[in-house]
Amino acid sequence: MKTSAANVAPLLAFLRELQRRHAVAVAVVHHARKGAGAIRAGQALRGSSEFHAWGDSNLYLRRDSDDRIVLTVEHRAAAATPSVTLELAQRDHALALQPVEADPQPDSRVEPTSVEQRITAALADADKPRPFSELRASCRVRTTTLYERLAAMTAAGLVVKSVDGYCLAHS
Questions:
Q1: What pLDDT, in 10s, does the model give residues 92-150?
Q2: Burial class, 130, CB count within 10 angstroms (exposed 0-12 / middle 13-18 / buried 19+)
Q3: Distances in whole angstroms, Cα of residue 58 to Cα of each of 41, 87, 89, 161
Q4: pTM exceeds 0.70
Q5: Cα–Cα distance measured from residue 5 to residue 8, given in angstroms and rounded to the nearest whole number
Q6: Strand stretches in 16-112, DSSP E
Q7: 45: buried, middle or exposed (CB in 10 Å: 19+, 13-18, 0-12)?
Q8: Residue 70 · residue 61 · CB < 8 Å
Q9: Are 97 and 115 in contact (CB under 8 A)?
Q10: Distance separating the N- and C-terminal Cα atoms of the chain
Q11: In 3-state terms, what secondary structure has residue 128?
């Protein structure tokens, strides 16, 4: 069946009603368009974009440019977590996905954790104002969250917004 907004919306409404009425979790498995490796995971869903918007928590498996399997997790009410690289491993008589061991030499750089820290780090590395779309890709947060944090940081005088994008105020 071809997915479109016309036939997806009633299905998702039914699943939401089922979820609420019986207090259960509902897992929807869907596949991405072929050749969509360069776009954000939720935008790669085949058919209607309503699948991406419907989920409270979304998990995406895709192959990266090195043909590794990467798990990306998004949640409606939380900042995105770092992606996890997985590999297919033989366990007894079955196959299972397991995390790839991290590089034995840890990176000395500490990854920023808060959205404000991610924004500051992304802007500190830039030699010119960064457009919103670049910041969103770097910070890996939902659009609404990034807009809210940028507005607060701009109001506090930490960030400057121009027609070319955003930069740190002291730059």
A1: 888 888 888 765 555 555 555 688 888 888 898 888 999 998 888 888 888 888 898 89
A2: buried
A3: 9, 20, 24, 31
A4: no
A5: 5
A6: 57-63, 69-75, 84-91, 94-99
A7: buried
A8: yes
A9: no
A10: 53
A11: coil
